[in-house]
């Protein structure tokens, strides 16, 4: 079945450093790759996404890259700040007749130390 | 725009009981997906509703069932509750395939 693996499970960085989270997916039909940030007790919120016809996308301090051949995609956060501390989830979405299915990774807990 | 709203926010049930969770999608969204998020884990896909029909389903037993109403709102029903059903249940609505907007969730505790 469909699967998304995410690494690392925990990441601790110093404020101002960069953080990188990596994911792999198994379903070749996946064509949309969102990233969500979830703070403690809150809903997951979309922070950036990328579609399969694009290799890289950047939004201020956040960037995502996608390698469809290798089924890898990554999240890069530069100049990290304490408010970046949260759990980050990658996801892969596949379109089917009548609907779609979005599968999530297990999450990465990011700690940014001031 | 109220966004995605879910009710109740918290509830406690005992093993064997049944529970119904409710979701109102974001205005204009016609697709509702349900996820189960156990503590410390990623959201697990339960099923998706569009045009009042279940369109996609994850690896969840038949104890998990749902419904979508003509106004696009949705319910998740879980029968014969087990301790392992304790989790945060997230509803997400969509207009564009793949783009999920989550509610705050319903936290279910099974004793």
3D architecture notes:
The complex is a heterodimer of chains A (114) and B (111). Chain A has 114 residues and is mostly beta strands. Chain A has no helices and eleven strands. Chain A has strands spanning 4-7, 10-14, 19-25, 30-38, 45-51, 56-59, 62-67, 72-77, 86-96, 99-104, 108-113. In chain A, strands 2, 4, 5, 9, 10 and 11 form a six-stranded mixed beta sheet that branches. A five-stranded antiparallel beta sheet of chain A has the order 1-3-8-7-6, with no helix packed on it. Chain A is globular and about 45 Å long. Chain A starts with a strand and ends with a strand. By secondary structure, chain B is mainly β. Chain B is built from no helices and eleven strands. In chain B, strands 2, 4, 5, 6, 9, 10 and 11 form a seven-stranded mixed beta sheet that branches. Chain B has a four-stranded antiparallel beta sheet with strand order 1-3-8-7, with no helix packed on it. Chain A binds chain B through residues 1, 6, 31-32, 34, 36, 42-46, 49, 89, 93, 95-96, 98-107, and chain B through 31, 33, 35, 40-45, 48, 50, 53, 55-56, 58-59, 90, 94, 97-105.
Distance between the termini of chain A: 41 Å
Oligomer: heterodimer
What count of helical segments of chain B does DSSP give? 0
What summary fits the major beta sheet of chain A? 6 strands, mixed
Q: What's the total count of β strands of chain B?
A: 11
Interface with most residues: A-B, 26 and 27 residues
Number of helices of chain A: 0
Q: Which value, in Å, is the CA radius of gyration of chain B?
A: 13 Å
The helix-strand sequence of chain A is EEEEEEEEEEE
Structural class of chain B comes to mainly beta
What would the average pLDDT of chain A be, to the nearest integer?
95
Helical content of chain A, roughly? under 10%
Give the strand tally of chain A. Answer: 11
Strand content of chain B: over 45%
Mean pLDDT reading of chain B: 96
Outline type of chain A: globular
Question: N-to-C terminal Cα separation of chain B, in Å?
Answer: 36 Å
How much of the sequence of chain A is in beta strands?
Answer: over 45%
Would you list the SSEs of chain B in sequence order as H and E?
EEEEEEEEEEE
């Amino acid at each position: 079945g469909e699967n998304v693996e995410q690494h690392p499970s925990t990441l601790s960085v110093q404020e101002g450093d960069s953080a990188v989270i990596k994911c792999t997916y198994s379903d070749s039909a996946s064509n949309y790759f969102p990233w969500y940030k979830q703070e403690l007790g809150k809903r997951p919120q979309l922070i950036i996404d990328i579609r399969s016809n694009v290799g890289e996308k950047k939004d201020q301090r956040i960037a995502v890259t996608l390698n469809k051949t290798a089924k890898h995609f990554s999240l890069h956060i530069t100049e990290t700040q304490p408010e970046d501390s949260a759990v980050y989830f990658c996801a892969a979405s596949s379109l089917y007749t009548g609907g779609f299915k979005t599968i999530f990774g297990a999450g990465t807990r990011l700690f940014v130390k001031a | 725009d109220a966004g995605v709203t879910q009710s109740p926010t918290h509830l406690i049930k005992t093993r064997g009981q049944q529970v119904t969770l409710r979701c109102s999608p974001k205005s204009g969204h016609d697709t509702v997906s349900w996820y189960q998020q156990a503590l410390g884990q990623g959201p697990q896909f339960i099923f998706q509703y569009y045009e009042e029909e279940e369109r996609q389903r994850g690896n969840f037993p038949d104890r998990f069932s749902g419904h979508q109403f003509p106004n696009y709102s949705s319910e998740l029903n879980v029968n014969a509750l087990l301790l392992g059903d304790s989790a945060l249940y997230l509803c997400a609505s969509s207009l564009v395939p793949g783009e999920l907007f989550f509610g705050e969730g319903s936290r279910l505790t099974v004793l």
